[in-house]
Amino acid sequence: MIEIFLKNYGVLFGGTVTTVMLSGLAIAIGMVLGLALAFGLISQRSPLRFACGLYRSFWRGTPILVQLLIVFYLLPQIGLPLSPFIAAVIALSLNTAAFQAEIYRAGLMEIPRGEIEAARMLGIRKWTIRRRILIPQMFRLVLPPLINETIIIIKNSSLVSIIAVTELMRRSQQIASATFQPLETYLIAGAIYLAINLALAQAGRRVEAGLAVSGARA
Amino acid sequence: MIGIDTDMIARYGPLLLAGLATTIRICAVASAIAVAAGLVVALLLLARSAVVRAAARLYVEVMRGTPILVILFLLYYGGPHFGLVLDAEPVGILGLGFYGAAYFAEIFRAGFLSIPKGQIEAARMVGLPQAHIVRRIQVPQMLGLVVPPSVNQVIILVKESAVLSIITVGELTMNATRMANETFAVVEPFLAVALLYWLLIELIARSGRWMEQWARHA
């Protein structure tokens, strides 16, 4: 096992960087889309609410592997040829947007209505209320589920290996078939994923503790 | 606009439905394993011995921090190296089951902790045997708290089962991929398969809500 690691650590490191980049991009894009969706889900306009609900239902109700295949094979059909990496980022982003929207919606519900009413009374505009009052407070509340979602996306990013994105899982498959030592290779891959996710969970707990000290509600 | 070839769907309908049946069968067995093993791990997480607790915690953290694909590859391709030679389907069922067990363990642990300690102490004082305490006092009270996240976990398991197609289990996603390869079409197979998963998951979610009602009255 150590031998495989020493011989291939450069390739494994490259794969890990791709995995982290892919997941990071998906989480960031998913955050923007998810926030928009969350406000859509609590909107007063029922057609908008319905459309956002439908989006959420589809992306939460089908396997991410199927979604990945749909994005990868369908978008070129409608004239959008994509590199595997871009297709992977799109599929993961659209998926996590639906899950993040639900996290943000729950967070927004936790903010006392009186604050919004008071802000409206003072004549603060809708977008300013969202940007300065709702969103900052909401992020403090949703940090634990958001970390959880990030861990899920890192794990799910291993599936993009089937469309030949050379992230950690794909690199491990290549090493396994070159060395004929799948057990050792996948144990290494598993350990790397585990290390990333445990580090993330730990960092999440730290930030949470830091926020709790300054937060009045916690 | 994308045209839908209804003829093709009619021709491949039986293949897709057979895949759906396999998916349902696999998920049913895997869920049963996950619930049973999860209950055992939950009890180990609350065991008196610190060593047992630490071992159970290690199991949960490793499973939750590693992608299911890595676990499946370890069992399927790495298994023969430690004498575990199984077909793809049993590997898939065992992988999904023991992966899910880690998540169920956390759900059950939270359930056990929700029961006031006084009740258990009282039951012990009265001389009830341990098995009796678990079956007649703890489990019935846990249900209300445990059923909703458990249904959620089963839904996650169904979506994860799509990954089994990568290790060549002939379930729904695998059959859709076969249909795509044979017909060179991508719209029909992947949209059909997404729809089937969606229906299956909607069905589980609905029966879950019904079970929640039942658990509350039980």
Helices and strands in order, then pairings?
The complex is a heterodimer of chains A (218) and B (218).
Chain A: H1 2-41, H2 46-61, H3 64-77, H4 84-110, H5 113-121, H6 126-156, H7 168-179, H8 182-214
Chain B: H1 6-45, H2 50-65, H3 68-76, H4 88-113, H5 117-126, H6 130-160, H7 172-183, H8 187-217
Polypeptide structure, described:
Chain A is mainly α and 218 residues long. Chain A has one domain: MetI-like (MetI-like fold, Orthogonal Bundle). In chain A, 83% of the residues lie in helices and 0% in strands. Chain A contains 8 helices and no strands. Chain A has helices spanning 2-41, 46-61, 64-77, 84-110, 113-121, 126-156, 168-179, 182-214. In chain A, helix 5 runs antiparallel to helix 6 (126-156) and helix 6 packs antiparallel against helix 8 (182-214). Chain A is globular. The termini of chain A are far apart. Chain B is an all-alpha fold and 218 residues long. Chain B has one domain (6-217): MetI-like (MetI-like fold, Orthogonal Bundle). In chain B, 80% of the residues lie in helices and 0% in strands. Chain B is built from 8 helices and no strands. Chain B is flat, with a radius of gyration of 21 Å. Chains A and B meet through helix 2, helix 3, helix 6, helix 7 and helix 8 of A and helix 2, helix 3, helix 6, helix 7 and helix 8 of B.
